[in-house]
Specification:
By secondary structure, the chain is an alpha+beta fold. It has two domains: 102 residues, Aminopeptidase, CATH 3.40.630.30; 146 residues, Aminopeptidase, CATH 3.40.630.90. The chain contains eight helices and 13 strands. The strands form two sheets. An eight-stranded mixed β-sheet has the order 1-2-3-4-5-12-6-11, sandwiched between helices. It has a five-stranded antiparallel β-sheet with strand order 7-8-9-10-13, with helices on both faces. Strand 9 and strand 10 form a beta hairpin. Helix 1 packs antiparallel against helix 2 and helix 7 crosses helix 8.
């Protein structure tokens, strides 16, 4: 039987985070270990708003988040409990996230669509921009030799790293880079400028960008850096875009297996960005 539901902001507190994550996990979406770090980040990030749907008994039955990257916004973690599906709650959560972003000044909205959600997003006007290719493989051991030209990201690199990311993605992700830069690594060229950037995140994986012009000579080195930074993980996930032919070829050669493709969809103004530079993402919920 359908229950009355209201949508409200997720409390930015430990109990609020735990309740939202428990909603996802009890509905079959991953584990506490997977989602608790991301929702903790959402609660602590002023450019983000997490939303939850609560039924009349006080149980959470849905989630969504909206995250602002300058004039571009991301919608993610749109989840509806199985017994609430088919009644429009997913669309309501998505529309509320979109409205939050538009009120914040975003005129381009992006998201990574699940198989269940893609038909809904198409009906709402989203169109496929590219696809992420989800590859699973192993990281490199802690004793592996790092490629020439790689080094830890320094605080003095921050402005350059933010600009490097902005040029390749078309987004202002400075809040993410400044939050996690201390874990980051750079790949530099002969002129010591940034050629590639790898920024690991607490929930697993890393955002990774390599200038497309550098892929021919430095693609193998960049993949080695990415795998080494993330360590000896038997379930390492990497998400290059369709246009990044070099990354997908090198991943296959390294024994990675492609599990699925994930449509990256956009609503509103199209933005220029270098899809061929994208080796991996912060997460499907934030690009």
């Amino acid at each position: 039987m359908r229950r009355s539901v209201r949508i409200e902001e997720m409390p930015r507190s430990a109990p609020g985070i735990w309740s939202a994550v428990s909603c996802l996990v009890s509905g079959g979406w991953g584990t506490q270990r997977q989602f608790h770090p991301t929702f903790s980040f959402y609660a602590d990030e002023p450019r983000c708003q997490a939303m939850v749907a609560e039924d009349e008994s006080g149980d959470l039955v849905g989630t969504a988040i909206a995250l602002q990257h300058g004039a571009i916004g991301w919608v993610g973690n749109v989840f509806v409990s199985p017994d609430q599906r088919g009644h429009g709650l997913g669309e309501k959560l998505t529309r509320q996230a979109i409205q939050y972003l538009r009120d914040a000044g975003c005129d381009t909205i992006r998201l990574a669509a699940t198989q269940l959600g893609e038909p809904l997003y198409r009906r709402m006007g989203f169109r496929v921009e590219t696809e992420y290719h989800e590859f699973q493989g192993t990281g490199l051991g802690r004793q592996s030799v790092l490629p020439r030209g790689s080094r830890p990201l320094l605080e003095s690199d921050l402005d350059d790293a933010v600009q490097f990311d902005r040029v390749l993605t078309g987004e202002d992700r400075s809040h993410l880079i400044r939050r996690f830069w201390a874990y980051g690594w750079a790949l530099t060229g002969s002129n010591t400028g940034l050629e590639g950037l790898v920024i690991p995140v607490p929930w697993g994986g890393a955002a990774a960008l390599l200038r497309p012009e550098a892929a021919h000579d430095q693609g193998s080195s960049f993949l080695s850096l990415l795998r080494a930074v993330l360590g000896p993980n038997p379930e390492l996930m990497i998400y290059p875009a369709t246009e990044n032919v070099t990354a997908r070829r090198l991943l296959r050669q390294a024994g990675f297996v492609e599990l699925r493709t994930i449509p990256r969809m956009v609503l509103g103004i199209d933005r220029n960005w270098e899809a061929a530079s994208l080796w991996s993402i912060f997460s499907p919920a934030m690009g």
